[in-house]
Amino acid sequence: MTPLFYREQEKFYVSVDCIILGFKEGKLYLLISKRKFEPQEGQDTLMGGFLRSDESLSETVSRVVFEYTGIQDVYMEQVGTYGEIGRDEGERVVSIAYYALIDLEMFDESVCEIHNARWEEVEKVGKLVFDHNQMLRDTIEILRKKTATQPIGFNLLPEKFTLPQLQALYEAIYQTTLDKRNFRKKILEMEILEKQDDKDKSSSKRGAFYYTFNKEKYDQLLQKGYYFSL
Amino acid sequence: MTPLFYREQEKFYVSVDCIILGFKEGKLYLLISKRKFEPQEGQDTLMGGFLRSDESLSETVSRVVFEYTGIQDVYMEQVGTYGEIGRDEGERVVSIAYYALIDLEMFDESVCEIHNARWEEVEKVGKLVFDHNQMLRDTIEILRKKTATQPIGFNLLPEKFTLPQLQALYEAIYQTTLDKRNFRKKILEMEILEKQDDKDKSSSKRGAFYYTFNKEKYDQLLQKGYYFSL
DNA sequence: GCAAAAGTGTTAGGTGTACACCCATGA
DNA sequence: TCATGGGTGTACACCTAACACTTTTGC
Predict the structure, then answer these.
(1) Cβ pairs bridging A and B (under 8 Å)
(2) CA distance B11 to B28
(3) Which of B52, B80, B85 sits opposite A10 (nearest CB)?
(4) Full-prediction pTM beyond 0.70?
(5) What residues does B212 pair with on adjacent strands?
(6) What digits encode the pLDDT tens for the residues A89-147?
(7) I want to staple A162 with a disulfide (CB 3.0 to 4.6 A). Which of A39, A120, A208, B85 is the partner?
(8) Residues of chain A with a CB closer than 8 angstroms to some CB in chain B
């Protein structure tokens, strides 16, 4: 069944590596675990897995993300493919990196123990195996461009969030501070947020109103040629 | 030598597909050839090749681009990786797409005959094999974003080019028209172009001055925190 | 002399950015 | 009553976008 010409070609191990990001306490966090086999066993690594023949790439990513977080249907995007000959010291492996954005309130803490996994501040991540640091850098660069032009940051927040939370998220992604008034003006005039009646009182006495992201409204605006931009 | 855990994993065919772009007569062109083996033999296809164990991904791309254009050291960027199970009807193949920007004056016409290749206007490209149309669409989207923020368009032009040529290039990429005065003002005030003493008289009686892109000057500006933007 | 493309400045409107004070509440 | 974070409006600088005429020269 395999065409003749194909059979003359070499085959390779193909893996996915997942840059799983979460947000809490005003900081971006990366899920890191200890590598469970040689080479570099015991070193800090991204979550990864080998591609299987009954899976598309994104299915492999979903499997890996679910295994390490207990969450399904996460937002994910391809970062790029890393294919240098010596990148994996064990064997020639071509690896496709994906980032995934997680709402930490959905995260199942028990998997941390199972997999020796932990959440590390993105800004404080140390040496990871192979080219995983490069994958992380590439992810952050892509994330910065993407969050500026598409409303994907909400994937890092709970369904209901406050404007101070949202602003802190953008500040963490861009590693900068933003003017409160300008931020609120800009995000609210897009009219893609729905103000709720209740408040989050966990971080102040006065409390901050909850908002939700209205995807339908955003899609309508896209149709009319409007663009998200922050 | 191969670690035990790896040996339990499946291996896959890995290929690269190249979106080779050129620019002439105010239009973007894509290099297309006829597929030389089953399945879909004889259909229009991007230039592709299988990854070999002694090559990195970009080396494979260089080999393919050289084979089909006779040009070395081309500008190239990864577009993305396509790994759906049934995308190649012949066998499971994971394919990494790269685009390459070619100066058509360097192009060796003789390879067209050898490979049944031809330059087709990007806007008029018909059905290609597998998911190659998707790869092309993704390329154009990336190219539009990238040319707006980085000076990569020059790779599609000869060493010496005129401002009307450069403007036509941007108009072809964005599929729009630009104001001549605004365009010239913007590109010139970046001070990354060097005006030459001679003119191109092929497209008008008066002739248009040649310019060259000064990469050193651009790199210096980058250091100082300036950004290219058009 | 005329057709055809190259080249050149100004202005108005809109967008981004900087900035300071009052409000609500729990302790 | 006070400390803490939430919430609000304006003014100025800058950038973007719109716009028309003159120049050069080969035919």
Answers:
(1) 104
(2) 37
(3) B52
(4) yes
(5) B194
(6) 989 999 999 999 999 999 988 888 888 899 999 999 999 999 999 999 999 999 999 99
(7) A208
(8) 2-6, 9-14, 37-39, 50-57, 78, 80-81, 83-85, 90-94, 96
